[in-house]
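As agreed, record passed on underneath.
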Amino acid sequence: MLPTSASSTIGDTFQIVGYGNLWTLQQNALQSITLGRSTSTVGILGSLTATHIRDTVELLYVAVDEWQIIDSIGNLTIA
């Protein structure tokens, strides 16, 4: 689960380094994740999912409830 707005400050980063298992990063209410021109569904139905066990992602908190992928390895699925 992504950190909440209450616990995040603009400029914070969040990383998942895949090793051994697939992973899914769930969002909290009102949150979204952006990669280039793709943006996840806003809120708890949005997510980011690894398609390979070594997929890795680094996100930057850019605005209230908005996270942007600044680095990734693999083919991530944005929902």
Remarks:
- The chain has one domain: 5-78.
